[in-house]
Amino acid sequence: MKVYGLTGSIGMGKSAVAAMFRREGVALFDADAEVHRLQGPGGRLLPAIEARFPGTTGPRGVDRAKLGAAVFGHPQERKALEAIVHPAVRDSREIFLRRHRSRAFVILDIPLLFETHGQKRLDGVIVVSAPAWKQRKRVLVRPGMTVAKFRQIVHLQTPDAEKRRRADHIIFTGTTFAATRAQVRRLVACLGAKTGR
User: Which CATH superfamily groups domain 2-194?
Assistant: First the structure.
């Protein structure tokens, strides 16, 4: 089984591309969705997060605004949160890989793939990219987003140009939905052909 990573900076359309891969029948592990599940109502990370960041959890799980305020702009606090979250996501990913080991290939959707050096353990990397003006436009319409917050997030991420340079495959989302879907279908056929299935 081949394992590919899917990544892209904020606002590049990675979630839409991930959904397209799923519709093509590809087994895809969504790290962000897993984090939401682990931090949601009854999630197994709630006790550890509450112990480290008091007042940031409740019956509905993590209060993302409160937790965000506690870690955003505070590198040490962010690292403390990552030390709680990353091992749990890694465990879930291993379960996913065992469950789908008979597949020709699977995709791991990992937003901070290059930032965490996760590409070293993969057979290839797929980067989702769009023009900077479109990225900015998409992100700034999100609830609670500001220009300052957007700039800070982008600053923490590996630049899009660098991601594209290091990619094995690139999906451009600065075009129409249909054109993006056509790129995804071509790539699924290509990756399937590489494994001989």
Answer: P-loop containing nucleotide triphosphate hydrolases (3.40.50.300)
